[in-house]
Design a protein that fits this description.
Layout lengths: L3 E14 L12 E12 L5 E3 L8 H5 L2 E3 L6 H7 L9 E3 L5 H4 L9 E5 H8 L26 E4 L3 E4 L2 E5 L8 E7 L2 E5 L7 H5 L15 H12 L4 E3 L4 H6 L1 E2 L1
Parallel strand pairs: 3-5, 5-6, 6-7, 11-12
Antiparallel strand pairs: 1-2, 1-4, 1-13, 2-3, 8-9, 9-10, 10-11
Length: 249
Amino acid sequence: MTLKITAVSVGRVFGLHKPSFTYLRGWGETLDIPLIMFVIEGGRFPVVVDTGADLSRAWEHHRIRMEQTPEEQPEAALRALGVDPREVGLVVNTHLHWDHCSNNDLFPNARIVLQKREIDFARRPVAWHRRQFEDLPDLTAAWLRAEDRIDALDGDAEVAPGVSVVSLPGHTPGSQGVLVEAGSRRYLLAGDCVDLYENWEGDAEADRIPSGFFTDLVAYEESLRRIENLGCEVIPSHDPLVVERRVFS
């Protein structure tokens, strides 16, 4: 069995403030970022990591400008790979921010893997994080549309042959990465623990740079150090270079 990861663009977000991605760095700069759905093939069934955003909510509820071509709609993007959403057996959400989990219900036969701490926090986030979790008075969070298929985990676990989740709290309380054994290579889909290659590469002041959006900065540092010991290539969640490379095997 040889696993392959494909990074699929399912839209773009425009004009985000850079310090939201690089902690206390890049004041006055903005970024346009891709929304990425990762598809892991080569096992008994396809595995999807993160399912993207619901663009119908983008401006009214989240006040961000987004674009999605017809080819980038999640179902169309999957079918272009030859993947039928009904054949996907497992969905992993790295966390429950709306841009990572809004299309979980597209996969009717998949179990959905999350950390229990993430589910608990998403139900009652602190005030400053409510919008990201869609905990708003006039909105039902998109992840709840497939709530009945969620498997809640407490820590690390192998979830399919060659595919494991790794607890990486900090960005959110239940953030997790997905470790993939792809032949002789080992990859980590890091979620928003590592948004950009710049976060992982660091700068003159620090060897790693966290996101500017987090719930626990001390836990975040521990998670970044943990990744260093995994012996893997890190794949960020929102870097345009990931979409350009596209295939990791």
